[in-house]
Amino acid sequence: MRMRRAFFAILTLLLGVAPLCATEPKLRSITPLGGQLNSEIEVKFEGERLQDTEEIIAYEPGFKIEKLNLVTNSIVKAQIKIEPDCSLGEHHFRLRTASGLSELMTFFVGSYSVIEEVEPNNNLQKAQPVALNTTIEGVIASEDIDCFVVEAKKGQRLSGEVEGIRVGRSACRGQGTHVEIFDGCSRQRRPHVNGHLSAGER
Ligand SMILES: [Ca+2]
Fold first, then answer.
1. CA 187 – ligand 1 centroid, Å
2. Would residue 3 count as lying in a domain?
């Protein structure tokens, strides 16, 4: 009799927990992944059960949510102002809905204007032309090569930086970033200069 009571109590507890988990918001992505300092951009949050979003929580100062638009159950759009005093680098956003908090997602703030990567750009012949002092945003779904071409004068210093974040541990295991610079005329690889070019991942 004591055993039957114990079984009944555990079953009731499990049945009570299941509906609570199903109401929590699920945040899968933020696009764009970053923005320029002192600008206003539209940011799209995609996931599940986002229809009752009430707030975008920014964990660092420097963001002003101008407008919140609940598009569908899986898409929320927000007009976000990146204030002049916002710090450069990685920031963190989370959605608060009437039924819970979403996962934490990262958002990068840079000093340059942001453009999207355009595929195909997998070899030097198809390199995407970009202006200097530009941030290029893209997503690596699997192994990929991205080529970009910039115009520079002889002797001009060129600095490049890669910031990458893994989305899902198992799908991206072993993934890394690597940067090479080629001379546009001779197509010869140029040696890296210490401190001027870096690639990183987390
Ligand atoms: Ca590519």
1. 18
2. no
